[in-house]
Amino acid sequence: MTEFVIHGGRKLKGSIAVQGSKNGALPLLAAALLVCGEVVIENCPQLSDVDCALDILTYLGCKAGRSGNSVAVDCTGMCAHDIPERLMKRMRSSVVFLGAILARAGCAEMTMPGGCMLGPRPIDYHLDALRALGAEIAAEGERLLCRADSLRGCDLFLPFPSVGTTENAMLAASAAQGTTRIMNAAREPEILDLAGFLNAIGIPVRGAGTTVIEVEGGCRTHGARYTVATDRIAAGTYLCAAAACGGTVEITNARPEHMAALTNALRHAGCDILEKLGYMRLTAPSHIAPVGIVETRPYPGYATDMQPPLMALMCTAEGTSVFIENIFESRYNHMEQLRRMGADIQSEGRFAAVHGVARLTGAPVTAPDLRAGAALVTAALGAYGRTEISHIDHLERGYERMDETLRRLGADVIRREQ
Q1: How many CB atoms lie within 10 A of CB 272?
Q2: Which CATH code of 1.40.20.10, 3.65.10.10, 3.60.120.10, 3.40.50.1370 fits the domain covering 2-19+230-417?
Q3: What is the pLDDT of residues 36-81, one digit of tens each?
Q4: What is the pLDDT of residues 148-192, one digit of tens each?
């Protein structure tokens, strides 16, 4: 088991360049299956979830190799259409391969995805979207058997603007005959990245970033080179950490336009934030103010992935903040661990009230999932004394060499094998 040992109380100061987006890179790697030829994905983060995606591609018969932060994928030799359980269970985002394999091979087999335990996250929306495009889907226990002799473009209305469903629909629609209109589509920046990649390989996509996306299917694809956008969740986590420590941090490759909901909350907390094209600087106040009510919603609302780090910051605010979690049932996994550090948090169902205390105190805690781990790191950096965070393998799914990044900013963080 691997853990972080953090001695808190040091102000963070300095400049960093944040990794490429995890949630942006994974659907691009799935989309590479649509090309019989080489694609190069640049600014692809070095994360365990990305490693899992590359292992899936290799299992399917594709060539996948990394050179620094560039990944080259050649799917010409794809010879399988199934993903074994051992790979599906490694990450929840593995379901995005369903639409891509179906588009490429006309059939797909896989089990239900694994990853962080965030409560029920049914993939019914994904399956309904693929059925509307002409797929036949049967379930045998946890295994899905999908077939589509001919995918057909259609008008597709999503009952919820799910990111994963939108991605799977876009990928399957790429091989459908005719035009597919996806209505009530997700608007997240990662959808823009996928649309940009599909356009780059020869599949016309219009409307990404709005609620209606059009995909022109059946077009010939070709190789391309594409750069993944900066990870807005990683950037936001480091801003929350700087605020918790009373420091000043610059992010030199930021995308401020993707982070408005978070920066509005941080400004409400008293932080001074300077934004320029591709640049952000946060200077923390001497005392953190409460943020009032924060309610997670689909983009451009407040991101569910940024709820845990902000809650950790609010643990020492001078007042009460209320969080309402609308996306994941078990997104409050971090609360009990924060309480072990002295946080005063009351919760019921989707609601959590955080009453700020004078300070948190270091304690042995466990990261139950990726973003909960980010919350514990944020809390530990601002806490008094020593915090040991176990099971940081969750953190390594989404943060590239987090300990090194934090040390560059002056934090006292050690990664230790037990």
Answers
A1: 12
A2: 3.65.10.10
A3: 999 999 999 999 999 999 999 999 999 999 999 999 999 999 999 9
A4: 989 999 999 999 999 999 999 999 999 999 999 999 999 999 999
CATH code of the region 22-227:
3.65.10.10
For residue 31, how many C-alpha atoms fall within 13 Å in the half-sphere facing its CB? 35
Count of C-beta atoms within a 10 Å radius of residue 303: 23
Tokens of 124: 């019914």
CA 347 to chain CA centroid, nearest Å: 25
- Cα angle for residues 253, 313, 307 (degrees, 5° grid): 70
Query: Could you say which of 75, 116, 154, 271 is catalytic?
Result: 116
Please indicate whether residue 116 is annotated as part of the active site: yes
Q: Where are the domains of the chain?
A: 2-19+230-417, 22-227
Domains 2-19+230-417 and 22-227 share a fold: yes
- Single-letter amino acid code for the residue at 383: A
Q: How far, in Å, CA of 254 to CA of 400, rounded?
A: 16
